[in-house]
Every structure is written in C-alpha cells, then in structure tokens.
Design goal:
Its main location: membrane. Keywords: Antiport, Cell membrane, Ion transport, Membrane, Transmembrane, Transmembrane helix, Transport. GO terms for molecular function: antiporter activity; xenobiotic transmembrane transporter activity. With 460 residues, the chain is mainly alpha-helical. It has helices at 2-44, 46-70, 72-83, 86-116, 125-157, 162-184, 194-218, 236-270, 272-308, 312-339, 341-346, 353-368, 370-385, 390-414, 418-445. The chain has one domain (2-445). 83% of the residues lie in helices and 0% in strands. Helix 2 (46-70) packs antiparallel against helix 4 and helix 3 packs parallel to helix 5.
Length: 460
C-alpha cells in the first residue's frame, strides 16, 4: 500500500493541481444556469422556473454536441505539446475557432427550429409560451459560448487553466447582476421578467468569448504559439481532424445530456410541480457533474501529454489518478446531498411545500448516483486523451438510451413510481456507463506500444 502511494502521489498531485482551476471554471459555467434558475424561482415562482429550467435543459441538449465536440482540442494540444510542436498548437487553436463558428451557426439554427416546434414537447400552455422565447435567446448565446470553449482549449491544453477560471468567475458575477437588473427592471433597465434571465446569459457569454480571445492574443505566455511564420500555415486538415474526433465526442456528450433532457420532459408529463422539483434536483446534480468534468478534462490533458511522449506507464497512471480523484470527490458530494437535501432545496424555493417535498426526495436520489456519474464522465475524458471517441459514443448510447431512458419510463409510468421512478432509470444508465468506459480505457492502454516502437492506438 505504501509503495502504491509513493508511485501515484506525484500523478495525483499534478492531476489535482490541474483539475482545480478547470473544476472552478466548469462550475462557473453550470452555475450560470443555476443562477438563472435561482433568480427565476425566487423572484417569479414555480411556473416560470419550470419553463426556464426546461429551456435551459433543451438548449444545453442542442449545444452539447458543440461543447463535447470542441473539448477534444485540449487533448490534441496537449499531445502536440508533448511532441514540442508549436506550429501544430497554433493550427489547432485557429482550427478550433473555425469549428466553433460552424457549430454556432448550425446548432443555433437547430435550436431556433426546436423553439418553433416547442408545442410538440407536451408541456402546459404557460410553460410552452415561456420556453419557446427563452430557447430562442439561449440558441443565440451558443455562438459566443462555443468561441469561448474553443479558445480555452489552448489554455487548458498548455496547462494554464487559471485563465478560463478567472474569466468564467467574472462572467458568473456579471450574470447574477444582469439577472436581477433585467428581471426586475432595476434602475433605467426594462423589466423583462423571465426573459431577462436569458438575456443575462447571452451578455455574460459574449463577455467570456471576447475576453479570453483578447487575453490569449496579448499575453506573453502564449506568444511562442503565434509566431508570424505560422500565419500562412493551412488549418483545413486540423478543422477536419477536430470534426472527425470531436463529432463522436460531441455525440457522447449529447447522449448523456439528451437522457436528462428527455427525463425532464417526462417529469413535465407528470405535472408542473414534478417538473419544477426535477429542475431543482437536476440543477444540483449538474453542478457536481460539471465539477467532475473538470477532473475529466484534466485527466484527458494528462493522458494526452503522456501519449504524446509515448509513455505507456504514464498514460495508465494519469487515467488511474483521475478516476481515483473523481471517486473521492463525488463520494463527498453524495454525503452532502444525502444529509442536507432539505436545506439545499430551500435555496431554490420556499413558498411551495409540494414542490419542496418532491425536490428533497429527488436530491436524495441524486446523492445515490453521484459516484456513477463522476466515474463515467472521467471515463469519457481519459479515453478522449487517447483520441478514442467512437466506441465511447456507442457505450453511452447503449447505457443511456437502451438502459436508462426505457427504465425511467417503466419505473415512472408503468410502475407508477412517479418522478422518483424516472430518476431510478437514470441511475441504472449512469452505472452501466461507469462500468464499461473505464474497462475500455485500461484495455486500450495495454495496446500502446512501448517507447521506441510504432505507436498502436485503436479508436474503432
């Protein structure tokens, strides 16, 4: 045991040091949605909360392909750093921005179409009206979000995650201010009601994109990757590479986000109270999940750098360290959810006992599946570090759509477990993914050729 500790202590320390700023940045992103829901719920009530919360879920569903697809950039940049190739890093950065623009236009259009057909989601008339307009504004805000995510891949891949962390935290403060001002019409600003929350998100994301790009171009730290000789280098092949690896990665993220979005829709079929309770609990679970994605991103970067150096042992240790860290972190989160569920719910809503009681029970459910949720997302991350993206997409499709969603419907509607049954199905899907993805990682690590021989990584 002591020998194991000394072997993994440096890797755990390095992964944790890299993880913390990424975790804070990821937490800041999801806390924007939490902030929106907090202001809407406390200032406007349960029905606006249900409409805004569902719109956030559906908008994130559409944007998840872009968010997950762009995340491959950090691992590719980390691999290039391991090889010492500054020109490739420059080309990957520029290619990522082009891919972000493409995702922003295509997925923005899809989001607008979804808003037009919002009535097909089977919600109450009040929720449908709010949700349609809210979704349109959020769809527009995805373009600056994608540009920010693409740019931050350079910072994270080069192990400077504090840049994105600082910008995200600043945007989080701005988002809270914008929410209050635009919802209530404070001072000279118009009272936009629930839609003020969506406009606040749009303005905050524009701030993030503009700030990170300006910082990268001006900071001395990144100047070695912006030499004048790099400007003439073509980026077309890197755009194709990011799309080739990113789209399966985006679909992996999509399958998970779609599961939770469809679960929210099922909750809406049961009633506005059930949907509001579901949104409160899923907001809390999403907060810890996004923090776990920070560990996942750090694991991908560490694994990618080790792969760039062709060091099989370092690859294995980097992946193992990330899995150990997320297991410990999510275990702590589970304890908090299980013991402080009522207090956490009161942060969202106090004047509706029915919603509060339902939400408190769902937070307990969320505590139960914390461990599976964390392990599966880190499994995706460490596989991304190996540029393995196709099989994880199949695994997540199976776990969430073949196991999780059908079981949610069976437990929730056929067996009449109500919204608790929907969450039982989610737990089953997450647990299946948490088993299969790490197994895939360790099997691939065994196929990495030792230093000095031809590298063999199979991604199909």
């Amino acid at each position: 045991m002591k020998q194991w500790y000394f072997v993994y202590k440096p890797e755990l320390s390095d992964t944790l040091r890299l993880s913390i700023p990424i975790v804070i940045a990821q937490l800041g992103v999801v806390l924007m949605g939490v902030t929106d829901n907090l202001f809407v719920g406390r200032l406007l009530g349960a029905v606006p909360l249900a409409g805004a919360g569902l719109s956030v879920s559906l908008s994130f569903l559409v944007s998840s392909i872009g968010v997950g697809g762009l995340a491959v950039g950090a691992a590719l940049i980390s691999q290039a750093k391991g090889r010492g190739d500054a020109a490739e890093i420059n080309r990957l950065f520029r290619a990522g921005l082009w891919v972000a623009l493409l995702f922003g236009l295509v997925l923005g259009l899809i989001g607008a179409v979804g808003a037009y057909f919002y009535g097909l989601f089977g919600q109450t008339p009040e929720v449908t009206t709010i949700g349609r307009n809210f979704t349109l504004i959020l769809s527009l805000s995805n373009l600056p979000l994608f540009l920010f995510i693409a740019a931050r891949q350079l910072c994270d891949g080069l192990a400077y995650p504090r840049v994105a962390m600082s910008i995200t935290l600043s945007a989080l403060v701005l988002n809270a201010v914008f929410n209050y001002v635009l919802i209530t019409g404070f001072g000279p600003f118009p009272a936009l009601g629930v839609y003020g929350s969506a406009v606040a998100t749009l303005l905050s994301r524009i701030f993030m994109a503009v700030t990170v790009i300006i910082y990268i171009r001006k900071a001395g730290t990144f100047q070695p990757y912006f030499q004048s000789s790099f400007r003439s280098l073509e980026v077309g092949q890197y755009v194709r590479k990011i799309l080739q690896l990113g789209l399966p990665g985006g679909l992996t993220f999509f399958f998970e986000v779609a599961t939770f979005s469809l679960a929210a829709m099922m909750a809406g079929w049961l009633g506005a109270d059930q949907l509001a309770a579901h949104q409160i609990a899923i907001n809390m679970a999403s907060t810890t999940y996004m923090m776990a994605t920070g560990i996942s991103a750090a694991g991908a970067i560490r694994v990618g750098n080790a792969l760039g150096r062709r060091n099989q042992t370092a690859v294995r240790r980097a992946g193992t360290a990330a899995l150990i860290l997320v297991t410990g972190f999510m275990s702590v989160c589970a304890i908090v959810f299980l013991t402080a569920n009522n207090w956490l719910v009161e942060l969202y809503i106090r004047d509706n006992p029915a919603v509060s009681a339902l939400a408190a029970s769902l937070v307990i459910m969320a505590g139960v599946f914390q461990l599976s949720d964390g392990v599966q997302v880190v499994g995706v991350g460490v596989l991304r570090g190996l540029s393995d993206v196709n099989v994880p997409s199949i695994i997540t499709l199976f776990a969430y759509w073949i196991v999780g969603l059908p079981m949610s419907y069976i437990f929730g509607f056929w067996l009449h477990f109500d919204v608790d049954g929907i969450w039982l199905g989610l737990l089953a899907g997450l647990t299946m993914a948490a088993i299969l993805l790490p197994m895939r990682f360790f099997r691939l690590v065994r196929k990495i050729s030792p230093i000095g021989t031809e590298e063999r990584i199979y991604t199909h």
